[in-house]
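so i finally got all the pieces together for this one. its four components total, 428 residues if u count the protein bits. some of the lines might not be protein, just check the labels. i wanna see the whole assembly predicted at once instead of chain by chain like last time, that was a mess tbh
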Amino acid sequence: MMHKTISLADQIFERLESDILTGVYPIGSVLTELSLSEDLGVSRTPIREAVRRLEQEHLVEPSSKGVVVLSITPHDAMIIYDIRIQVEGLAARACAENITDEQLAEMKELLELQEFYIKKADSEKIKNTDSQFHQMIYQFAGSPVYYDTLAPLHNKTQKFRKASVARSGKAVNSHEEHHDIYKAIAARDPDAAELAMKRHVEEAKKRLAELAEI
Amino acid sequence: MMHKTISLADQIFERLESDILTGVYPIGSVLTELSLSEDLGVSRTPIREAVRRLEQEHLVEPSSKGVVVLSITPHDAMIIYDIRIQVEGLAARACAENITDEQLAEMKELLELQEFYIKKADSEKIKNTDSQFHQMIYQFAGSPVYYDTLAPLHNKTQKFRKASVARSGKAVNSHEEHHDIYKAIAARDPDAAELAMKRHVEEAKKRLAELAEI
DNA sequence: GCGAGTATAATTGTATGCATATATCCATGA
DNA sequence: TCATGGATATATGCATACAATTATACTCGC
């Protein structure tokens, strides 16, 4: 019952993370290992593992009794964008310096796929390719440090944005900005890549600020 | 068996993290839960928890048999400093904008303590106060996001530096730079605080680069 | 009626056992 | 000799049992 499948702990983490960021477990509610274990029908062991990861990401906080749900505030979201502006700028620069031809081709392919989904107006898939594009940048930047630092931040803003979009009904489109970044990286121009990426994340921040009326 | 003290899992994580970053477990070596469990004299449960955290921080990587030690390369360390330059700059700025009088007093006290240890040439304590100073900045910046992002990065450079210092015999002293940062924060001057912090982390990067002969 | 002290319940920390998957090694046959 | 197949060893994933701590409720004495 082990390898091919994703571990229960991973599945449970994904589920709990989603449920917290989308409000299924409201901020302030208390979760205990035992109650989660009963709710999800598994033993405490994989639950513990998932909850520890939630703790590390500050989505929950230990309290005298179980853990209490924290999620993130709009203010936190804005700060995450400020950090992302700087660090993704560095990552894009590193990417322009280090990317291989194969990786570049992969990136181009993803952008074409995104274009396809934009024409079909499949917003779920658009958002997916969007995230994948950023994760590619993190991965192609030449050090796992970029991914480790940026992936959790990106993840949080994505889910926060998702909740805001659901409330407002608006959607966003940043395909052109992605293409600018790609072009700079393809040209192996670090300055241009950094600039394009910083501009892109800044725009994303502004869009969310409007959306969430911060 | 659940004393007031820190949990076994936490202790083991700290120890393994240190041992990896200082080379006790060389890069490429393989660790299994069972062998660690026997070496450290505890059951697999807390070991598992610690190893999962190491995986999340990319200090080890799962393999067919146990996990293999990754640690960080000098190149990674330099990248971490580049990220810290930017993000700690933001944190220092936020700190100057948000810090309370009590927090400011606490910070001043810490710097006086550090001065005391410097006169006594107690390098272990100096390093401790050093780390505490940075962590205070993260905590007083007004959002847990700063701490979550910066603490792991700071931790890694500290331990990496420790290994380098052990090899070279040199030590470093950055008290004056800390004091500059404090003065800017005390004056509630965000621009000056950001600048002082950036300069400080840049200097730390240069010192490590010399030390590690990168 | 109320406070103190104690019993009880609830919760997490740790150990252990079992199931399962994978690697390794050895034997056997062409 | 080499490939193949199976037995064995080793590893992790999950469940469960137990220990210990902390919160809560309750009782008893005043």
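Residues 80 and 161 of chain A are 12 Å apart (CA to CA).
Residues 74-98 of chain A form the longest helix (25 residues).
anyway lmk what u think
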